[in-house]
Write a structure and sequence with these properties.
heterodimer, A: 653 residues, alpha/beta, Rossmann fold, FAD/NAD(P)-binding domain, 4 domains, five-stranded parallel sheet, 36 strands, B: 328 residues, two-stranded antiparallel ribbon, 13 helices, 32% helix, globular, binds flavin-adenine dinucleotide, binds iron/sulfur cluster
């Protein structure tokens, strides 16, 4: 075999410490080494030109380069080999600079070590196989996780551009948080009406056939990378056939069991078969099998009996795991509110008539538990309502940051209350007021100018004490001067900060994207690239990235689709590095030792053949499985057992 | 009648089980004798070394050589039979990989003599007599062949055509090999393993195999395994994963773990090292563990294995990359 060896002096970086002459004498003694060339700067333009010409002239079958770290220039020289019509994998590069010249001062020792390494390379390179990268079309489809404002906007803009979207929503209904708000700040638009056109477009718009909506679903496994993710989605049974159900609600009434309705913040109950709330879309019910008595062995069929169409209720519906191939992933799972029961001094959960902002949203919503009525205070309503801002934010014992939206909801409530209950006084207890932006400021102004509102700045949320005095809620607090004071109200609304949802951590580990110090998904760069996660191909939108209002959530959804449309154009090709592992079926015994070892989830088990398989797209050639396979059935290209052994033997002889 | 091809079988450092395995082909032995001239087999026949020496070179068609090379005599016979045979087959685990005799490579010849003749509690040897290469007696000098410092496999001593693994090789496999020679089936390339599979024992084992995550290992007396499931998954070190197929998974079939007698499968250089790499891949180290916890946990799991060499290299130490212990 004709092997050409090139020795790069790297100026004097290498040749000052390693004697090329001495190395040449050693290396040219080897049987297969046809020639040995010394070059000043192999990576410089002249160096590359020389290498290309020399290779074309001498036509070696294998090439060994003694030079710098392959991390610096392996690709450079592989390209030169390609230009010289030699398969670039028929080359072995030896790092005689960092590994030898720079760490050994004795020129004799350094020359011997360089020779030993080069001998290893000469021995191994003979076994190299010509490898070819596989070309793969990227998958242009997109997975969107979460059907709130951010996810919906992303889905719609992507489908408008002709892309296919798999939209995964955990809840039985779509729309996220805002479909549960009666009115939307800053312009006090009707929430459900504002979102309804978008929801309609997703369900039956012009491009809706390109949106595969999976409700009651969660992503459970993700493997792959930009252009080629393989995603497993678990979908819970709905027990209702969306193709048959007409949404008439006849089935709800007869159902004999009920449970707290989490979609109304557990302020009322829903039946085992129910709609999340009225007007929720898609407009058909679901059966909660944790509540339904059929799962407890009873043969109840009251809902089915009441149903006016045939086969709309499917009692034997099953949990499904759906596998999808997508090119990019948009995360839009939203956020949740800080648990106000952590602020024990505020009486939440213990005293009556104390609600969180979200609970109050549901109370005032016409599709909420009380159909928008504030009950229990007679026709005139409560005499006064206290709204406590910063209920847990900007506080080192609770949440350090400001969510930036709570003040706005508080002022939204101010307008709503005054409109609905003109006699009610409104106290705003605040630590700071945060109302940036042209519209938001108006919101604040309106509250300021409302003759029924009063602003009270407290010093510290932990100094507020809420108790019952004479049947009303007494709020003791301190001014910034330290002076204690008391106000009385009939109802308290707490505006807690927005925090990462409880799903964020788990989803993060499934997607392998990190969280920031507050637990939100961490952006690639906070200013320049806040839509990209740290993992290429996974984008962050909406309040799972940071607390934000609907405007921003929508913008981020749009931005993510922009990233995808520009970065993942249809028809784009991915080149798959050929240094990957593959299973020899003849040797594989199906022992399953390798099944869990792959850090890239590239190993699958073909149950039918009882053999393991590796996925060339997912495999990164790390070699973990090659070491693990006790049958010697997995071959790691370019790092075969034979090549490694030859290299070791070469170094040792 | 044309002359029948010659067949010989020799035992070097071995237990005799290989010969029994050959005879275990039962009545088919008659067919063997019918087709071959069974020329030499100290266990069964009376031909002597001098008879073989008298033969022309390459006049034996096939020699089945079992036993490792422990002594000078073993080496001498290996060389002789090599010279006289067309096809020399390393037969059985000892000649393939060293087998149990090979485990003695953890100690030097002197260590063995000291233990066997001097220090063993059941030995009384007041004169401190140990075997000598030469001993003077009134009749002259007695010679003993050298007891080498290390046990070698047959192919470490002479050139070998084929390898039939097993301790002992399964009789049906022996018959298959002999029969294919009788039937004139084309022989595989030199150096091949014959009379065995290419994959591992798991391939032949009918136990249900699932994803493996092992918390601790059990010795066989410490656990009553679920007989349907893979033994390894239950924490019993079954060498089946790293052992060449061919036995029909005899041991796992009766719920005993494979101890590895068929040696490494194709594509594996070192059975013991491979087994350790595989076990390392299936230890249960799930969860958020610190480096120290991982080390601690791994050590604990490894401590439940009483004898590394005897577990992982029971049959293959002499033939492994390690070969023997470092002697100072
Ligand atoms: C009390 C309150 C009032 C507000 N009022 C206003 C207002 O008037 N105007 C305004 O502009 N902003 C308002 N906001 C802010 C607004 O709610 C957010 O900007 C908006 O909800 C963010 O949209 P999103 O799509 O990021 O998340 P969300 O609206 O939270 O939607 C996330 C979606 O993802 C789903 N999901 C969650 N986890 C998973 C999972 N693991 N798998 C699949 N799906 C999942 C959820 O079910 C949900 O449908 C208010 C916020 C609060 C707390
Ligand atoms: S470890 Fe090897 S033999 Fe076992 S299933 Fe995986 S590829 Fe097959
Ligand atoms: S070499 Fe094996 S373990 Fe590594 S990425 Fe490829 S399949 Fe996974
Ligand atoms: S019991 Fe042993 S031979 Fe059978 S599958 Fe498990 S490891 Fe393999």
């Amino acid at each position: 075999m004709k092997i050409g060896v090139y020795f790069c002096k790297c100026g004097t970086n290498i040749s000052d410490r390693i004697d090329p002459q001495k190395v040449m004498e050693e290396i040219t003694k080897l049987k297969d080494v046809a020639y040995f060339e010394t070059v000043d700067f192999l990576c410089a333009e002249e160096g590359k030109e020389f290498l290309e010409k020399d290779l074309k002239k001498k036509k070696p079958m294998r090439v060994v380069l003694g030079a710098c770290s392959p991390r610096d220039h392996e690709k450079t020289f592989m390209n030169v080999l390609s230009k010289a019509a030699i398969n670039p994998y028929l080359m072995q590069m030896v790092n005689i600079r960092e590994h030898v010249a720079w760490v050994i001062s004795d020129i004799c020792k350094a020359s011997d070590k360089a020779s030993a390494y080069l001998k290893g390379a000469v021995a191994r390179v003979q076994l190299h196989e010509p490898l070819k990268p596989e070309e793969l079309n990227v998958c242009p489809d997109v997975l969107v996780i979460g059907a709130g404002p951010a996810g919906l906007k992303a889905s719609l803009s992507l489908t408008e551009a002709g892309r296919k979207v798999v939209l995964v929503e955990k809840n039985p209904v779509i729309g996220g948080m805002p479909v549960r708000y009666e009115e939307i700040f800053p312009n006090m638009e009707c929430g459900p009406c504002m979102l309804e056109p978008m929801l309609g477009d997703v369900l039956h718009g012009d491009n809706s056939e390109n949106i595969e909506l999976l409700t009651l679903s969660e992503v459970v496994e993700v493997a792959g990378y930009l252009g080629n993710f393989i995603v497993k989605i678990k979908q819970l049974p709905r027990y209702v056939n969306p193709k048959k159900c007409i949404g008439c609600r006849e089935c709800i009434e007869p159902c004999p069991v009920s449970a707290k309705n989490e979609f109304n913040c557990s302020l009322d109950e829903r039946k085992a078969i129910s709609f999340a709330f009225s007007g929720g879309l898609p407009n058909f019910p679901f059966i909660d099998d944790k509540v339904c008595i059929r799962t407890k062995g009873e043969n109840c069929r009251l809902c089915e009996d009441a149903c006016i169409v045939d086969d709309a209720i499917i009692f034997d519906d099953k949990e499904k795991v759906i596998e999808k191939n997508v090119g990019a992933i948009i995360v839009a799972v939203g956020a949740e509110l800080y648990d106000c029961s952590n602020l024990t001094n505020l009486g939440y959960g213990k005293l009556p008539n104390i609600y969180t902002s979200l609970e109050f949203e549901r109370i005032i919503a016409s599709n909420g538990p009380t159909e928008g009525e504030i009950q229990g205070f007679g026709k005139k309503g409560p005499r006064s309502i206290a709204i406590i801002h910063c209920a847990g934010s900007l506080d080192k014992n609770h949440i350090k940051y400001c969510s930036g939206t709570c003040c706005q909801s508080a002022f939204k409530f101010n307008q709503f209350i005054s409109k609905k209950l003109p006699n009610t006084k409104i106290f705003h207890f605040f630590k700071e007021i945060s109302v940036p932006g042209k519209e938001t400021f108006q919101l604040y102004n309106k509250a300021l100018n409302n003759p029924d509102s009063m602003f009270i700045r407290y010093r510290n949320i932990n100094e507020i004490d809420v108790s019952i005095e004479n049947g009303r809620l007494a709020i003791h607090y301190s001014f910034s001067s330290g002076k204690r004071c008391k106000s009385t109200a009939d109802m308290i609304i707490l505006c807690p900060p927005v925090i990462p949802s409880s799903d964020t951590a788990e989803l993060g580990s499934i997607l392998e994207i990190p969280a920031d110090r507050y637990g939100f998904f961490e952006e690639l760069h906070n200013r320049v690239d806040s839509i990209q996660s740290k993992l290429k191909g996974v984008y962050l939108t909406g309040s799972c990235q940071s607390p934000m209002d609907i405007q921003n959530a929508m913008n981020q959804g749009l931005a993510a689709s922009g990233y995808i449309l520009s970065g993942l154009p249809e028809g784009k090709k991915l080149e798959i590095e050929p240094i990957i592992a593959s299973v020899d079926e003849e040797r594989c015994s199906g022992c399953r030792v390798c099944n869990l070892v792959c850090p890239y989830k590239a190993i699958d088990f073909d149950e039918e053949k009882a053999k393991a398989t590796t996925n060339s797209v997912l495999c990164q050639g790390c070699g973990t499985c090659v070491a693990a396979c006790p049958a010697g059935a997995i071959k790691g290209n370019h790092f075969t057992v034979e090549e490694l052994l030859a290299e070791i033997q070469g170094v040792l002889t | 009648m044309t002359k029948k091809p010659g067949l010989s079988m020799y035992w070097a450092s071995s237990c005799g089980g290989c010969e029994i395995a050959l005879v275990n082909i039962n009545e088919k032995i008659l067919e063997v004798i019918d087709k071959f001239d069974f020329m030499f087999c100290p266990c069964l026949l009376d031909t002597k070394k001098k008879d073989i020496e008298a033969l022309p070179d390459k006049s034996i068609e096939i020699t089945l050589f079992n036993g490792a090379v422990r002594t000078e005599e073993n080496a001498e016979m290996a060389n002789l039979l090599r010279k006289k045979s067309k096809i020399l087959i390393a037969f059985g685990s000892c000649s393939n990989d060293g087998c149990i005799p090979g485990l003695s490579n953890l100690y030097s010849a002197k260590d063995h003599f000291d233990t066997i003749y001097l220090n063993n509690p059941t030995v009384s040897n007041p004169g401190g007599i140990v075997p000598q290469r030469e001993t003077e007696v009134p009749e002259g000098t007695l010679h003993l062949p050298e007891f080498y410092d290390t046990v070698r496999t047959l192919s470490q001593v002479v050139d070998v055509e084929y390898f039939i693994p097993g301790c002992p090789p399964e009789s049906n496999q022996i018959w298959d090999v002999i029969n294919s020679v009788i039937e004139g089936v084309k022989l595989p390339p030199k150096g091949s393993v014959i009379g065995a599979g290419t994959s591992t024992v798991c391939d032949e084992c009918e136990k249900i195999k699932e994803d493996k995550k092992i918390d601790r290992f059990y010795r066989t007396y410490e656990i009553i395994p679920d007989t349907k499931k893979c033994l390894l998954e239950q924490g019993i070190i079954c060498m089946g994963i790293a052992t060449r197929a061919g036995c029909g998974s005899l041991c796992p079939k009766v719920n005993m773990p494979c101890s590895g007698c068929y040696g490494a499968p194709d594509g594996v250089l070192d059975q013991g090292a491979k087994m350790i790499a595989a076990l390392g891949s299936i230890l249960n180290l799930e969860g958020d563990l610190t480096e120290e916890e991982i080390t601690g946990h791994t050590n604990k799991i490894m401590d439940s294995i009483p004898d590394y060499a005897g577990t992982f290299y029971k049959f293959s130490l002499a033939g492994s990359i390690l070969k023997n212990s470092v002697r100072k």
